Amino acid sequence: MLSEKDQELQRLRNEIREEQTQSPQIDEENTASESLQRLREEKEFAEGQINFLNSVIVDLQRKNEELKLKLKKMVLSEWNDEENNGLGEVKKKKKKKKKESPPRVFCDICDCFDLHDTEDCPTQTQQQQQSPGSPPHSVNHGKRSEERPYCEVCEAFGHATDSCNEDQTF
């Protein structure tokens, strides 16, 4: 019985040794599989970023080509208009005629439109014909030697100060 127990003890010790030698191999396999899994995830993430950036590049290249075509069309149409000397110029002239209207004549002295310009104003020519130091002509149609009544209260011609109604004062 002792020998059987010794043999069983020996067998169990051997199993323990085998397990201990296999244990580091299992730990190494677990860390290797975890590292491999992490590397796969990083690879998938990087590939996703690459695909996204490639799609952005393709979109920008497409837009660039469209803009180049538009620019080429604009240059060709402008070149054709200059070269035609016919239809292109007629269109330009029609547009200019519609946009360009003659300026209206205005007189600053008379404050009126479309009659005459300030430089051609008849009032200005009358003032220039007078001597430079003399006052403008009177609009009173009386005689020069005749004295007109003036009211100092209301400061107006037409009645004397003595005959002024105080109700009319301002």
Automatic annotation (TrEMBL):
Pfam families reported for this sequence: CLIP1_ZNF
Cellular compartment(s): Cytoplasm, Cytoskeleton
User: Where is the segment annotated Disordered?
Assistant: 1-36, 78-103, 123-144
Provide this UniProt record's keywords sorted from A to Z: Coiled coil, Cytoplasm, Cytoskeleton, Microtubule
UniProt GO cellular component terms: microtubule
User: Which segment of the chain is annotated as a signal peptide?
Assistant: none
Where the record annotates domain CLIP1 zinc knuckle, the positions are 104-121, 148-164
| Compositionally biased residues, Basic and acidic residues | 1-20
Instruction: Please identify the protein, giving its name as recorded.
Output: CLIP1 zinc knuckle domain-containing protein
Organism in which the protein naturally occurs: Danionella cerebrum
